[in-house]
Amino acid sequence: MPVGIDDLAIYVPKLYIDYKDFAEARGIDPQKLEYGIGIKKMALADANQDPACMAANACMRVMKKNDLNPQDIGRIYVATESALDESKAMNSFVIGMLEQVYGEDSLEHAGGIECKFACVSGSYALYDNANWIRAGENGDKSAIVIVSDIAKYDIGSAGEYTQGAGAVALLIKNNPRLLAFDEKVASTIIKNEYDFYRPFGKETPLVNGVYSNLLYLIQVRKALEAYKEKAIKQGYIKLKEGESITDHIDYINVHLPYRKMGEKALAYLLRHEWRHLPRWKDITTHLKLDEPIPKDPRGTIESLLADTEFMKADEKFRKEFMKTTYYREVFDKKMSSSLEASAIIGNLYTASMYMGLRSLVEFEFGKGFDLYNKRVGFGSYGSGCSAMVFSGVFQEGYKEIASKMNLDKEIGTRTKISINNYEKLHSNTKKFDEAFLSAENEFILVSIGGITADRAGFREYCYAS
Ligand code: CAA
Q1: Is 207:159 a contact under the CB 8 Å cutoff?
Q2: Which of 456, 449, 433, 353 is nearest to 49 (CA)?
């Protein structure tokens, strides 16, 4: 029996920063943000919101949408890199919030954990929960995996224009309506790295931006190599002479710290996959450029970055390649729809690839394409670092889900915030009761720490109806 994603729901805070205001405040060309990064609006958490209440809001939406009772759910996992406590798991906060609505102890049977591995942990959580169902441990219950994050960088840093906030809740079950995971193909790569990390007590990450971009590409490519072997062995894909695995994957959905990263990842993967095929000769002839070769044939990340001549030539080649019809055709057909949401929401860390899936389904369906039986390949990346490549196939029931999707409606009426007010939120100087927007039908944070010392660190939430 296939296992996969039956349905999903999103929660995105209604406050946002407009890229033109941001560019003006930081003295950046707005075209760099719009085209170089690919951002127009960055979602921003209000003073009374945190990753736990966003996760609970997304979870309740998926439950309500599907008329699910607590008894229908056997597990709730939360994957995040915005942990609120060094010990207490975020799913326990989520359970507490949901039980305010569904009744005391109504979800006491729904075990789970908080998962951490930067942006890739949601994919591990999905894989583990799919296997929990495949093993028959679930009885007749489903699992919910929630990915929720606030991407927050230092003011004035290059990461500041790749911020965002939001959550996606994924309902995992047997015979899913939306997407069935391909079995025995999920492939992972792991390495001890410091491309992007957040030491204890620090609210914003320490980032080596250029290094992290290249590491993302290399690690996803390695995971794709491992995936390719498994997908061929399992018989999902049969490669004929001159073909690439990318010819057999209908949609490509990757981790999206920002929209442009998706475009660049596709270029990198296509170059790698096509380099030894007859079509590559046509491409380089068309470009009138040979693909640059690094001085050090081992091609380690350190040697590549130190080889400035190669890096410059390679950037030039990549940019020219991205202008060709060879690239554009694949991009338009297999990736473009998954990037729409990223441009108007921003980075969601763990949730960004799953918001990409949400975007792919809504916008491809909206363009009139039939997704049934189409295979989507996922390229998940988490700094630190690990990559996971896996795939799934859209099921017949997807139309029921896709036809009801409406990103604008689901986000709700959005409010643009001034840079001055954004900076107040960024510095955490606003109190919970000083939120810019009044909450309606959602969970909000009302206090941290009680009046007495024995309640230090307690986080309290309520459902604002
Ligand atoms: N008009 C149009 N485009 C312009 C422009 C202009 N006036 N000026 C610059 N650009 C383009 C550049 O040409 C460049 O395009 P290409 O990528 O095609 O070369 C693009 O804008 C970005 O400009 P820079 O190369 O100058 O890069 P930057 O200094 O702005 O930094 C960044 C970009 C490294 C992504 C930075 O935002 C950052 O450090 N972000 C956080 C780290 C990150 O997101 N890493 C991604 C991989 S790690 C990961 O994925 C985990 C995670 O979620 C964080």
Answers
A1: yes
A2: 433
The mean pLDDT value for 445-460 works out to 86
Could you tell me which residues are beta bridge partners of residue 376?
251, 392
The Å distance, Cα 37 to ligand 1 centre, comes to 6
Tokens of 347: 């980075």
- Sign of the CA dihedral with 169 first, then 174, 176, and 179 last: positive
Residues of the chain above pLDDT 90, percent: 97
Note the pLDDT of residue 460.
Answer: 95
pLDDT the model gives residue 260: 98
Taking the CA of residue 317 as centre, how many other CA atoms within 13 Å lie in the half-sphere pointing to its CB? 19
Confidence at residue 416, expressed as pLDDT on a 0 to 100 scale: 98
Q: Which residues, listed in sequence order, are joined to residue 8 by a DSSP beta bridge? A: 170
Written in H, E and C, the secondary structure of 174-237 is: ECCCCEEECCCCCEEEECCCCCEECCCCCCCCEECHHHHHHHHHHHHHHHHHHHHHHHHHCCCC
The helix/strand/coil state of 13 is coil
How far does the centroid of ligand 1 lie from the alpha carbon of residue 205, in Å? 16
User: Nearest to residue 41, comparing CAs of 165, 204, 203?
Assistant: 165
* Sheet with strand 15-18: strands edge to edge: 41-44, 15-18, 415-416
Q: 238-288: per-residue pLDDT in tens?
A: 999 999 999 999 999 999 999 999 999 999 999 999 999 999 999 999 999
Atom of ligand 1 nearest to the CA of 257: 53
Residues whose CB falls within 8 Å of the CB of residue 32, separated by 6 or more in sequence, listed in order = 23
Q: Please give the structure tokens belonging to residue 311.
A: 């890096």
Q: For strands 73-79 and 15-18, give the pairing.
A: unpaired
Query: What is the amino acid identity at position 167?
Result: A
Going by alpha carbons, the residue nearest to atom 8 of ligand 1 is 32
* Residues 119 and 349: beta-carbon distance below 8 Å: yes
Residue nearest to atom 47 of ligand 1 (CA): 213
Ligand 1 centroid distance, CA of 36 (Å): 7
Instruction: Provide the whole-model pTM.
Output: 0.97
The model's pLDDT over 33-65, given as tens digits with 9 standing for 90+, comes to 999 999 999 999 999 999 999 999 999 999 999
In short, whether 117's Cβ falls inside 6 Å of ligand 1 is: no
3-state secondary structure of 372: coil
- Beta carbon of 109 within 6 Å of any ligand 1 atom: no
